[in-house]
Each structure stands twice: as structure tokens, then as C-alpha cells.
Design brief:
It is built from one helix and 15 strands. It has about 220 residues and is mainly beta.
């Protein structure tokens, strides 16, 4: 009796084309119809590993780590400047699930930047912010606001040290008026000093000290005859 061969299963062309179209490993630049382009590693047709993405319409570029199609790990995001037609770094640091996460530095302008912790695209945790007017805040953040313990040093060197809540002074704190040589220590509610004491502090070195020093308070003892 003749031996009959089992017919081989022929893979449909649609599945064959789909399998061959799957992008895995390092690839040369892949261009999109909208002008965007990506060069780097792939896994199952998703950006995964090291890679560089250019968004043509947004004028932006990201160079760094990817995970299943999203920015994840360490990377740098830059924007194209219309004046110089060159890319300027905007953010460099950690990413998670396509959002800024972990430690990173964000450049708002040539004179303003934030370096510290991020959570889901927002400044949260510890961080230091340099403002354009010369002020510097260093301390805790929550959802882009000063929250917790922190110090705000003004451009004139006066500073506040103490508690913050949702961007305002709240709780116990100290305000050093170094230009006048005085110190206020007390309690704050929603950015307003409610109760506390004022004393001289560094009055001899102050550029514009008060006319008269604050008298010291002494407790008198009375002798009983």
C-alpha cells in the first residue's frame, strides 16, 4: 500500500506578511506618514530599548529609553527653537509610562529651572527651583506646589524656613529679614503670619537696619519683705 504524505499546512499570505512586518531588534530609521521618525530598538513592533523619536509637527525630539512603546527609564526631551533652528534641551531625567518620573531636571528658560523628583509629570518629592526673578526654593513638593518642609530664599537674600501646604506658608516657620536685621518666628495660615515674635538678627550686618533695636524682655524678680 503506497504511503500517503500528509499535506503541509500552508500559512495564509496575510499572516505571513503580518509576521514579516513585525519589527524586532535594532532597526534603521522608520518614517511615519506625518513626517515623524524613529531610530532604535523594537520589540513586537513597539519601541523598546534605546531609541530616538522625532516629532516633526511638534518640533520635538526624545532620545533615551523606551518600554513597550512608551518613554520609560532615562531620556532627554528637547524642543526646536525657531530662532536658531536648533534643538534646546527641555527635560533630562527619569520617565515612567511616558511621563516624567523619578529624578530629573526641567529647563523653563535660560534662568529658570527645576531639579528634583517627579511623579506622573508633576514636581513631587524633594526638589530645588530656580526662578527667573532670582528666588530659590529648596524643599518638598506635591503636585507642582511647595508642600512640606522647605526654604524660600528671595533675591534680596531674605528667606523663609518652615512648613508649606499647597504652595502657601502653613504652620510653624521663620522669616529672616536680613536686609533689616530682624527675625520673625511664629505660626502661619495660608501664607499669612498669624502669631509670633520679632527679634533682632544680624542687625549689625544688615544693609538697611531699623532705626532702633528691639528691646529685650527681662523677667523682674521682686523681693518680699
Amino acid at each position: 500500500m503506497p504511503h500517503l504524505k500528509k499535506p503541509r499546512k500552508v500559512e495564509p499570505l496575510s499572516k505571513l506578511w503580518d509576521r514579516k512586518a513585525q519589527k524586532c531588534g535594532l532597526r534603521h530609521t522608520v518614517y511615519s506618514v506625518n513626517g515623524d521618525e524613529y531610530t532604535g530598538d523594537w520589540l513586537d513592533s513597539k519601541k523598546h530599548g534605546k531609541g530616538t523619536q522625532i516629532w516633526k509637527k511638534a518640533g520635538a525630539i526624545y532620545d533615551g529609553d523606551w518600554k513597550y512603546g512608551k518613554r520609560d527609564g532615562y531620556g532627554t526631551y528637547s524642543k526646536l527653537l525657531s530662532v536658531t533652528n536648533e534643538y534646546s534641551r527641555e527635560y533630562s531625567g527619569g520617565w515612567e509610562n511616558d511621563k516624567k518620573h523619578g529624578f530629573g531636571t526641567y529647563f523653563y528658560s535660560d534662568t529658570a529651572c527645576y531639579e528634583g523628583e517627579w511623579s506622573e509629570d508633576q514636581r513631587s518629592g524633594w526638589g530645588r527651583m530656580y526662578y527667573e526673578n532670582g528666588d530659590i526654593y529648596e524643599g518638598e513638593w506635591l503636585k507642582n506646589k511647595h508642600h512640606g518642609q522647605g526654604m524660600l530664599r528671595l533675591a534680596n537674600e531674605n528667606r523663609y524656613e518652615g512648613n508649606w501646604k499647597y504652595g502657601k506658608k502653613n504652620g510653624h516657620g521663620k522669616f529672616f529679614y536680613l536686609d533689616k536685621g530682624q527675625l520673625y518666628e511664629g505660626f502661619w495660615v495660608d501664607g499669612v503670619a498669624k502669631c509670633g515674635t520679632v527679634s533682632d538678627f544680624g542687625r549689625a550686618e544688615a544693609p538697611t537696619p531699623t532705626i532702633y533695636p528691639i528691646p529685650k524682655v527681662h523677667t523682674l524678680s521682686f523681693e518680699v519683705f
